[in-house]
Amino acid sequence: KQEVTQIPAALSVPEGENLVLNCSFTDSAIYNLQWFRQDPGKGLTSLLLIQSSQREQTSGRLNASLDKSSGRSTLYIAASQPGDSATYLCAVAPYGNKLVFGAGTILRVKS
Amino acid sequence: GAGVSQSPSNKVTEKGKDVELRCDPISGHTALYWYRQSLGQGLEFLIYFQGNSAPDKSGLPSDRFSAERTGGSVSTLTIQRTQQEDSAVYLCASRRRLAGDEQYFGPGTRLTVT
Hints:
The complex is a heterodimer of chains A (about 110) and B (about 110). Helices cover about 0% and strands about 60% of the residues of chain A. With about 110 residues, chain A is an all-beta fold. With about 110 residues, chain B is an all-beta fold. Chain B contains no helices and ten strands. The interface of A and B includes residues 41, 42, 98, 99 and 103 of A.
């Protein structure tokens, strides 16, 4: 059974700091991995999608890497801003295709 | 273009009543998913529709839960005889055609069972 773990569970940093969120999964048989952002009381916003054949994806200040063989992904956020404060969720799409989510990392960026 | 929409955004119901939650996927998306997000359980898969294939119902927690997708588009999730433990946010997502395509999520329906 696929399990996804995210570390840390919560993170508080001053504005401007670079930070890394970690995600690990137990079964490397996946189609892809997605990173999402969730604001309080809102739905999920997709940030980055990495296909199983890819090593990384970048969008603006965000960079996500994938090491499928070791079952790990990282989300790097450069020059963090208070508007980045949210819960970040990692999800993998196994060959059964339904997403399996981690519990999330709650990020707070202090101004 | 329009994203995934869900209605209602909030629903409060009494224990024992039936509820219906609606999802309108992105036009042209062939796959549709329902997930549930509750305190202490995180986000969990409920059911998956792909084209005309039989749905994957493996995530439905009990036979009180059912879902249908009419005409390959709109989907309705029905919960019969609601219980307090059904209180959660119900999220719908859609995907284009290929299994590796991105899933796009709706804003969710917050269900509260009193």
